[in-house]
Amino acid sequence: MNITVSGGAEMRKSLLAGIRSRKARIAVIGLGYVGLPLALGFAARGFKTYGIDTNPVRVKKLLDGESFITDVTDAAIAGPVKKGLFVPSLDEALIGACQVAIICVPTPIKRRYTPDISFIISAVRAVTRNLAKGTLVVLESTTYPGTTEELILPELEKSGLKAGKDFFLAFSPERVDPGNASHSVTQIPKVVGGLTPACNEVTAALYGSIIKQIHLVSSPRAAEMTKLLENTFRLINIGWVNEAAMMCQAFKIDVWEAIDAAGTKPFGFMPFYPGLGVGGHCIPEDPIYLYWKAKQHGYASRFIKLSADINSAMPGYAAERIGAILKKRGKKLSGARVLVLGVTYKKDVKDLRKSPSVKLIEVLRRQGAEVSFYDPLIPFLNIDGLQMEGAAFSPRILAAQDCVAVAVDHSKVDYALVLKHARAVFDIRNVYRGKVSPKITRL
Ligand SMILES: NC(=O)c1ccc[n+]([C@@H]2O[C@H](COP(=O)([O-])OP(=O)(O)OC[C@H]3O[C@@H](n4cnc5c(N)ncnc54)[C@H](O)[C@@H]3O)[C@@H](O)[C@H]2O)c1
After folding, report:
1. Does any ligand 1 atom lie closer than 6 A to the CB of residue 123?
2. Plot region of 113 (φ>0 → left; ψ -120 to 50 → alpha; else → beta)
C-alpha cells in the first residue's frame, strides 16, 4: 500500500492537543480480557472512555460495576462508571462522538488452520458507519500480517474518508498476560505500527499517556508480525519442552531437574515448562494466523504445524502415563477413579477456553475412567458439551481416588493435603518440586 500523504497538519495538531489535555474521547470496541483493562486504563487517566460491546450481559454487568475478568476488580469498574469516565454501552453510534476508536475483538480460528476474522470485520464496519474526520483507528486484536492495510483500510475508506489523510490508522498489539500481577497493561512496553509517520505520532501520544514505553515500527504489518513472532515463539518452545519431557521419560531423567539446571545459564537459554499443552485464546490460535498467511504466499510453516501437533497430543500422552501409574498399582484405567486437579487453561486464571485439562478429562472418560475434577476457580464445568459438577476438596474425596492428576498449578490449592490423602499423584506441573515420595510421579 503506497500512502504518501501524512495526516493533515490541523487534524494532527487537534488530536494531539485532545490527547494531551485528556479531552479526546475514546471508544474501546470489545470489552474482554484485552479491551476492559485498556478502557479502564484510559478512564483512570481522565479520558472519557466508551466501552462498546455486542454482548448485552457483559454491558449490563459493567454498568452494575461487576467484573467478569480475573484481573479486574468490581471496584475498578464501579468507580469510573459512577464518575461517568467509563461508559459501557451496546450503542455503536457513540463511536461517532469519539476521536479514537480501538478495536479489541476476538480473533478465533474457524476450522483447523483457518482464521475467523468475522469479529474484526463487523467491528470495523461499525467504526466505518460512525467514522468522523480526524479520528484515530487502532486495531489491537491479534491477527495475520497485512490485516490492517489489506482488510481494514479499504473497509474504513468505504466511509468516503481517506486513510492517512482524513483519519489515522495503526496496529498496536496487546501483550497483556492474564493472571500476571507483575506486568499490568500500563507497564508492558507497547509496540505501535502506524500507516504513516503522523499515524505513528498520534498513536504513540495516545498510548504514551497511559504506558511508559512505546516502541515504534515502520508499518502496521511489522507490528502485526511482532505479536505473532512472540506468541509463535511460545508455542514452539512449549512444544519443544513437551517433546523433551517425553524423551526424558524414556531416558529415566527428571526433565524438571534438567530445565532448572539449564536455567542457571546466564545467556542463550530461557526456561519453558512442560504440561498438558497450550490453551486460552492466544497461543493455540495466533500462530495459526501466521501459518495461514504464510500458506497464502506458498510457504508451509513446519515449526508451527509440528509444535501445534506435539502440544495437542499431550492430553493423550498424560492419559497414557496415568494408565501406567495405575497398572503399577494393579489397576486398569478403565473403571479407575481419577480426579483432575485444575481445569482452567492456566494457573490462577478463570478461563476455560481451549483448556487442555478439559481435553484430558475427555480422553480419560473415553478410555473408561471415572473422572471427577476439582478447581478452586471453577465450581461447574460446562464446555464443549461436557457438563460436570466440581468435586469437594476433602480428605475423603482425595482418598477415594485411584489417582489425582495435578493438571494446573493453581496457587489456592493445599497440595500437602492432596499428597497426604491421595493414593497416587501424577504431578503434571511439578507442584511437588524436589519432593520425594513413592506416591508422586512427575511428567
Ligand atoms: N486474552 C488474552 O490474554 C490476550 C492477550 C493479548 C492479545 N489478545 C488478543 O486480543 C483480542 C481480544 O481477545 P480477548 O481475550 O479480549 O477476547 P474476549 O473474548 O475476552 O473479549 C472480546 C469481546 O469482544 C466482544 N465483541 C465481539 N464482537 C464484537 C463487535 N463486533 N463489536 C463489539 N464487541 C464485540 C465480545 O462480546 C467480548 O466481550 C484477540 O485478538 C486476542 O487474540 C488476547
Report:
1. yes
2. left
Q: Is 148 in contact with 120 (CB distance < 8 Å)?
A: no
29, 31, 34, 36: which to mutate for ligand 1, most atoms within 8 A of CB? 34
What's the CATH fold of domain 234-442? Rossmann fold (3.40.50)
Cα 438 to ligand 1 centre (Å): 45
- At 186, the pLDDT band (50, 70, 90 cuts) reads confident
Q: Is 54 in the pocket of ligand 1 (CB under 6 A)?
A: yes
Helix (H) or strand (E) run with residue 89 in it: strand 86-89
pTM of the predicted model, to two decimals? 0.93
User: What residues act catalytically?
Assistant: 282
Cell triple for residue 89? 454501552
CA pair distance 197, 3, nearest whole angstrom: 11
Measured between alpha carbons, how far is 8 from 28 in angstroms, rounded to an integer? 24
Phi, psi at 170, each rounded to 5°: -155, 160
CA distance 36 to 76: 10
Q: Where in the chain is the domain with CATH 3.40.50.720?
A: 9-218, 234-442
Mean pLDDT of 91-96: 98
Q: Provide the pLDDT for residue 4.
A: 39
Task: Report which ligand 1 atom has the smallest distance to the Cα of 282.
Answer: 43
H or E stretch at 275? none
CATH topology of domain 9-218: Rossmann fold (3.40.50)
Q: Looking at this protein, which amino acid is placed at residue 387?
A: Q
